Amino acid sequence: MVIFKKFAFDSAHFLPNVPDGHKCKNIHGHTYHLTVFLEGDLVEDLEWVMDFKDVKDVIKPIIDRLDHQLINDIPGLENPTAERITVWIWDQIKPQLPLLSKIELNETPTSGVVYDGK
Ligand SMILES: Nc1nc2c(c(=O)[nH]1)N=C([C@H](O)[C@H](O)COP(=O)(O)OP(=O)(O)OP(=O)(O)O)CN2
Ligand SMILES: [Zn+2]
């Protein structure tokens, strides 16, 4: 069974490597929406895959590093494409969430990334 939990954070960024004149070279902001998916069997008696609270306890400190920050200032995120941010999040949370199967990061209502670690 697959469970999911959603998070949101507001951050500024710019993309330093795009050509001059590209709109994303300018500093701008997004309300990012992160969804984390965890896959596993139901735990006997509890009848859940994992406590949503325990998921939040892992993700929240990562969100707090991004929320209301200029993402480019964070080591490893100097070129903060949605793809790069997604891998950065995955690399930090996967060791703490063995059941993690996929994450989805929406940068805008119409654009985003789905990543399963491959
Ligand atoms: N593959 C990627 N392409 C783009 C990224 C990215 O991270 N990966 N980032 C940007 C910009 O930062 C920003 O997200 C703009 O994206 P875009 O979808 O063009 O945003 P709009 O609000 O203009 O979208 P519309 O729905 O088309 O109005 C650009 N590309
Ligand atoms: Zn952007």
From TrEMBL:
It catalyses: 7,8-dihydroneopterin 3'-triphosphate + H2O = 6-carboxy-5,6,7,8-tetrahydropterin + triphosphate + acetaldehyde + 2 H(+). Its EC number is 4.-.-.-. GO terms for molecular function: 6-carboxytetrahydropterin synthase activity. Its cofactor is Zn(2+). Pathway: Purine metabolism; 7-cyano-7-deazaguanine biosynthesis. Gene3D superfamilies: 6-pyruvoyl tetrahydropterin synthase/QueD. Binds 1 zinc ion per subunit. Belongs to the PTPS family. QueD subfamily. Keywords: Lyase, Metal-binding, Queuosine biosynthesis, Zinc. This is 6-carboxy-5,6,7,8-tetrahydropterin synthase. It holds the Pfam family PTPS. The keyword Metal-binding applies. The gene is queD. It is an enzyme of class 4 (lyase). It comes from Reichenbachiella ulvae. The keyword Transmembrane does not apply.
